[in-house]
């Protein structure tokens, strides 16, 4: 079955820059969006958790999505994040996204409720029926408390709109399950330190918060594995990225690290919304050092001739 939307490449869940009063800084948001598009990311997600959706009102999220879609102006797809505690809020976000011209929806399990698989599927199908847009599911049991298991996938799979899943369980057996039993639902990497494994099992897209500030490097890994099929090169790039993965995931400072990375590389993302707090000086220095080494190492790998070029050069010299 041909999916109604192809997810191929790097999809960035965009940070939300804030002013000192915690209102969205639309000028800085425009700058982030323009840089991401210029560096070649393949799609953008508005209103994900990397964008601090948990600390924003529905009205604020709609305002940010409207500005995002207007600034992007069709140059890359924009996916509307609909995750919310209240099902009515998720529906408002989904309907608002469609009205603004979003290309697809990101649909997660309602947090804290711990629904059964049937209940979770019916909630997703309700959004699907009302909005009729391509949907990327978001499976993150570590945050939501439940898995989008086989019963869930069988139920939602009856609609062609459910054409992708961002898999963030961290369970490699889920990757095997999706590749084997649900090939009609495109698998997207949602667990950064498993990106190489996802690509080896056929994933063609990666939803990665780190691409907010290191888009070229994330694209380099995707290109090596998905476009070139060069997993030797991919492993070398992944090894260079592993220190970043450790820094992002340690101590529950993922969003703070992402936003500081963007600020460090030239676009001030402003305040972090409570209850989170900004990185301290030691954390900032550690992240800065990781960024410098990563950019240098991957830059050197990318500057090397590809294996095909190297063979051609050897033959010419011989």
Structure in words:
The protein is α/β, with parallel strands linked by helices and 318 residues long. It has a domain at 9-229: Aldolase class I (TIM Barrel), CATH 3.20.20. The chain contains 13 helices and eight strands. The chain has an eight-stranded parallel barrel, surrounded by five helices. Helix 1 links the parallel strand 1 (9-13) and strand 2 (43-46). Helix 2 (58-72) packs parallel to helix 3.
Secondary structure elements and pairings:
Layout: E1 9-13, H1 26-39, E2 43-46, H2 58-72, E3 78-81, H3 87-100, E4 104-108, H4 117-131, E5 135-139, H5 141-144, H6 150-156, E6 162-167, H7 172-181, E7 186-189, H8 195-200, E8 205-207, H9 215-227, H10 231-249, H11 254-264, H12 281-303, H13 307-317
Parallel strand pairs: 1-2, 1-8, 2-3, 3-4, 4-5, 5-6, 6-7, 7-8
List the keywords.
single chain, 318 residues, alpha/beta, TIM Barrel, 8-stranded parallel barrel, 13 helices, 8 strands, globular
| Molecular shape | globular
**DSSP summary: helix tally:** 13
Provide the low-confidence segments as ranges.
Answer: 311-315
Please tell me the CATH architecture of the domain at 9-229 by its name. Answer: Alpha-Beta Barrel
- Strand content bin: 5-15%
Mean pLDDT: 95
Strand order of the largest sheet: 1-2-3-4-5-6-7-8
CATH superfamily of the domain at 9-229: Aldolase class I
Topology order in helix (H) and strand (E) letters = EHEHEHEHEHHEHEHEHHHHH
**CATH level 1 class label of the domain at 9-229:** Alpha Beta
Using the CA coordinates, give the radius of gyration: 19 Å
Tell me about the largest β-sheet. 8 strands, parallel, barrel
CATH topology of the domain at 9-229: TIM Barrel
How many distinct beta strands? 8
